[in-house]
Write a structure and sequence with these properties.
The chain is of the alpha+beta class. It contains four helices and four strands; from the N terminus they run ααααββββ. The termini are far apart. The C terminus is likely disordered.
Length: about 200
């Protein structure tokens, strides 16, 4: 008499497949959680880094506004005061230079009080020459300049997954205009040099 034998190992194979499926789901979930954690940390640190540069911009505005009489001197030394590389500025200032902070301490600010420089302040000219004159980026003509700050902090900059500081520098810029005070006598009819007074 012939008896049918049950297929052996089918239960074991099913169990192995179920374990593999559960392991894949758990691994995918762990990867998703890790990526979300990395994104959250990067977003939080990016806020700190952005506020580092934005705070530096306020220092730059205050510093260069107080020294308006020296704007042309600053613009004439882009290797110290301008980190933006251009065809006319082939050796721009290096915010991470080891010697620049010693020679020009006024351009560096410690924001978090740890004794290390966090931002580098700079100045550059806006396009203020009228055509057909060529642009002279080393001289200010309209009492308007571009000031900026570069976050160079080792503590306020975000870190990569390997723990090293992200080498990307955050830069914030803004216009700074200097308005001379009008001290001329203003009569009622002519309003001084403006000529906008009340003509009775």
């Amino acid at each position: 008499m012939h008896t049918r034998t049950r297929p052996r190992g089918s239960a074991l194979l099913t169990a192995v497949l179920m374990v593999a499926l559960l392991t894949s789901i758990v691994a995918a979930l762990m990867l998703y959680v890790h990526q979300q954690r990395v994104r959250s940390i990067a977003a939080a640190r990016a806020i700190v880094r952005d506020s580092c540069a934005a705070s530096g911009l306020q220092y730059a505005r205050a510093y260069f506004a107080r020294h308006q009489a020296k704007w042309d001197d600053y613009l004439g030394e882009p290797q110290v005061y301008n980190p933006v590389k251009a065809s006319w500025n082939t050796t721009p200032a290096d915010p991470k230079s080891k010697t620049l902070p010693n020679d020009h301490k006024e351009l560096f600010v410690d924001l978090d009080g740890d004794g290390a420089n966090d931002v580098y302040l700079y100045i550059r000219d806006n396009p203020d020459e009228g055509l057909p004159a060529l642009q002279n980026w080393r001289r200010d003509n309209d009492q308007i300049v571009i000031v900026g700050a570069v976050c160079i902090s080792e503590t306020m900059a975000p870190r990569r997954q390997d723990g090293n500081v992200d080498p990307t520098l955050v830069v914030v810029e803004g216009l700074l205009s200097y308005n001379l005070t009008d001290t001329s006598y203003k009569s009622q009819s002519l309003s001084g040099t403006a000529g906008t007074g009340n003509l009775n």
